[in-house]
Every structure is written in C-alpha cells, then in structure tokens.
Amino acid sequence: MRQVVLDTETTGLEAKEGHRIIEVGAIEVVGRRITERRFHHYVNPERDSDEGALAVHGLTRNFLEDKPKFPDIVGDLLEFVKDAEVIIHNAAFDLEFLDAELGRIGRGRFADHCAQVTDSLTLARERHPGKRNSLDALCERYGVSNAHRTLHGALLDAGLLAEAFLAMTRGQDSLVIDLLVDEALAEGHFAFDASQLIIVAAAADELAAHEALLDTMVKEAKQAVWRRAATLAAA
Fold it and tell me: What is the pTM of this model?
C-alpha cells in the first residue's frame, strides 16, 4: 500500500477554541522507499497564533496573510492522500484540526478520504513502553539527524518522521516486502528501460584470471560452486 507521512502546524493547541491549521506537509513512501513526491502548503488562518505556538513554528500572521486559505488547498491535499495509509505522529491532534477544517466546508472527516490513518506515536509506545517517544526522541533512538531543525515545520517534521518510522518498522514487513515492491513496479514507480543499461563484458585476460582462480578452488576444496551453477544452467 502507498503511504503518506503527514504533519501540520497550527495557531494553537485546541481546534475547538477556533485555532486553525497554518501549514501542511506530506511525503510519499512507496515500497518502503521515500519518493520525490511532496505536498506542502502554508495556509492563511485569518487569525493570530498563540505565543506558545508561535515560539514553536515561528510563522507569523504577517507571513501567512498572502497564503491560500484551507479551502483553496483541500482538493490537492485530499488527492495526495487518496487510497494511502497516512502516518501521523500523535494523530489525534492533527486529525482534530483536519476534521475541523474539513467540517467547515462540508467535506466530512479526513479518515474518509484515505485508506487508513496510522498513529506512529501509538506504535512507538508499544515498541518502547516507558520511554520518551516524541519525534525528537525517535530521531535520536534511530539515528535520524535533526541537527538542521531549529523550529518545527510541517514538511521538515514529515521528512524526519518518514525516516524514523521506516527505521522503527524495519523488518516487520520482511515476509511481504516482495509483494510491496511488485505492487510498486506494477504502478510504474520503479519502472526503467532495461535497454538503456550499459553492459561491460570481461576482457580475455580477466576471463583467464577467473578460470585460474576457479582451478585453484577446485584443487583446494574439490569443487567450485560457480562451475556447478554454470553446468546446471547449460543443462
């Protein structure tokens, strides 16, 4: 399944108090590989940010005044997450704001527009009970560099979460990873033209050296697997 790692920034902590989304950032993951596809928009909330929120993201009302309003970006956002598993850290917080914004324009709930929502914070708590599981803590635990992060930003945090989430879940899909890659290939995400590959043939002296090495292996170990494979292939 295609995945989208998403994050938002807001004017405050409570959507029910009228606080609004001011930034949305999302990154696509296909076959457990981060692709080049991104979704990112600043949003004009038509209100000020709380001092605490402003200290976190640094996005002033003056900076946001000429940015599009949420109804102007919602179509592209919902198209980006369509049919995807959306991964959000502390999903309840972001979903409250997303649902509030969608509710204002009669577009239902965010979860209705994607395949499913996965809370990476819940997953981290299951994997590391009793430990800090903030995004910064996950970055430290899994060796994801966040040294360039001085303020929170939706796209920046989505990128960090994508790397941390892939590290945290590494191995859990080992039995189905081939299916994921096959699905990605079928959708054309990793398509390539094999006719463009450059093939460099071994020179005569290189082939001779290789055969001499195999002769030595036969003398020392009584067999050379390479030659057995070649014989079977020829048969």
Answer: 0.72
